Amino acid sequence: MGTIIDFQQALDENTRLSRLLLYSRKVQKMLEPKSISKELADELLAYKPNRRSMKMEQIFNTVLDRYPDGVTIKDIDVMFNPEYKVDVLKILIAARKRKRYNVIWPGWLEDEKLVYGEEGYPDYKVYRIADYDITCVR
């Protein structure tokens, strides 16, 4: 389901409109992404810790709605807090159905997988690209 493309292919209008694009960090200088980490953290702090997992998707959408369609966002690391127990990619994809935006992935692409964090740490996550309706741009 998910695919990997080169940056030049992402310049095509149809590609940008089709589904969520996850860019590698090396192209962020070309995109002028907006950092949303502080906004996400501030919104999460308004809820008790045991409620934050349930509110994560709503909070992410609230923050995302502050930006125009087509925005590229970065600094989503707070979403990977292991206490939240959420599938970050599912939240990102669901939000893409409401609003057109793209993400600078805070990890890396390795063997058809998106990786976040370091192996052995609680926030370490590996996502098989084929399992998600996304396009990864390298």
What does this structure look like?
With 138 residues, the protein is of the alpha/beta class. 34% of the residues lie in helices and 23% in strands. The longest helix has 13 residues, at 52-64. The two termini are 17 Å apart.
Could you outline the blueprint of secondary structure elements for this entry?
Blueprint: E1 3-5, H1 7-10, H2 13-18, E2 20-23, H3 28-31, E3 34-35, H4 37-45, H5 52-64, E4 71-74, H6 88-98, E5 101-104, E6 108-110, E7 113-116, E8 125-128, E9 134-137
Helix pairs in contact: 4-5
Keywords:
globular; six-stranded parallel sheet; 34% helix; alpha/beta; 23% strand; 138 residues; three-stranded antiparallel sheet
- The value of Rg in angstroms is 14 Å
How far apart, in Å, are the first and last alpha carbons?
Answer: 17 Å
Outline type: globular
Strand and helix order: EHHEHEHHEHEEEEE
Sheet/helix structural class = alpha/beta
